Amino acid sequence: MQIKASVLEEQKSQMRFQLLDLIEPRAKEVRIKMVGSGVCHTDIAHAKNEFNMKLNTPIVLGHEGAGIVESIGPGVTKVAEGDHVIISNPYCGVCDECMRGEPWYCEPGTDGSLHLSGLDYYGTTPFSRRGKPVHTLFQQSSFAEMIVVHENTVTKIDDDIDLKYAGPLSCGLRTGAGYVYNLLKPRPADWVCVTGVGPVGLGAMWMARAMGAKTIVLDINQSRLDMAKETGADVIINSDGMSEGEMYAAIRAAADGKGTHFLVETTGVESVIKASMRQMRGGGQCAECAVVGSISFDSYTNDCNDAHTITFGRMGNVANEIIIPVMLDLYRRGMFPFDKLITFYPFEHLQQAMDDSETGRVIKPVVLFD
Ligand SMILES: NC(=O)c1ccc[n+]([C@@H]2O[C@H](COP(=O)([O-])OP(=O)(O)OC[C@H]3O[C@@H](n4cnc5c(N)ncnc54)[C@H](O)[C@@H]3O)[C@@H](O)[C@H]2O)c1
Ligand SMILES: [Zn+2]
Ligand SMILES: [Zn+2]
Questions:
Q1: In terms of CB atoms within 10 Å, which end of the chain has fewer, N or C?
Q2: Which residues line ligand 1 (CB under 6 A)?
């Protein structure tokens, strides 16, 4: 079958639309007709090689897809033809960590072979061009009108959810929401600080609020802070122009003068990380979501000496099949209004969607395939 996809010939070049050959689904594989795909900062960073991580190219990027199961291969039990699905984090299902019930720590997931080898579950590529392989990202490659993935990566969702909006639930939103739901687990009336309110931060804030916690949100972008306030943040802090000490004092003062119990850090900016870590109460726990370079902490002075813990997790440290239905349940009850973040673009305007995401003009672009 020939399908249209956006192909990155090599990193640091422009993606181009091309026709590719797509395989028939093999054992345990599912072919999905894409409806919408979110554009994530990670796609942009890989395209530009900002992580200094060489990808196997040519490659089809995209990892926030939602669509309809078009056909299934032998032995597929998780979904059937016609099911609505979100495609998310791949895991092998058989390693020690998967067996232990922690697929977010999946061995071939964490060593990069499932995510970053450019190959699929069987060590091949689902796409090819004139007989030559075209690689896949995170075993998804949602910047294509049709994809073939292993059934482990799909989560079935109910038909009442509009698939056009659903893709972004598979990455940024679930990362923030997952850390709060499955790692930090705030109690009612605990304080949770969220630094940076993109999709990751908003997902964290909404989940914290749904769990009964109080939230303080810090960012330098006023329109994003306004969105956070409108959708439930207790306190917003515009830290534009603030020093590290001023950020520390502002967050601490807002949390009854005692600091927050928890922190979800999404900016990756050193001064924000240090101020928001240090303001926490004794025993405070931080989920660091951003890709952070080298940062030094002085454990003797008050950077993090009050038994603070910091977790550099993966995709919210929670299984796709658990967190996606939880977010959708909260959405139906008005507590996870993720549709407010989304701006649609036709698939053909993918580059514009990426540019607008980078400049912060839109929070979450989604390209539509029809
Ligand atoms: N760990 C994981 O598994 C995982 C998964 C998804 C995303 N991520 C990462 O999480 C991070 C957040 O993702 P996102 O999609 O929400 O990004 P985003 O760019 O939409 O949001 C980041 C927010 O931080 C704010 N910010 C930037 N500099 C700031 C500063 N100096 N002070 C205060 N606020 C500042 C921005 O205004 C923005 O609102 C990214 O680094 C992304 O790569 C990690
Ligand atoms: Zn992502
Ligand atoms: Zn595994």
A1: C
A2: 41-42, 171-172, 175, 196-201, 218-221, 224, 239, 266-269, 272, 289-291, 313-315
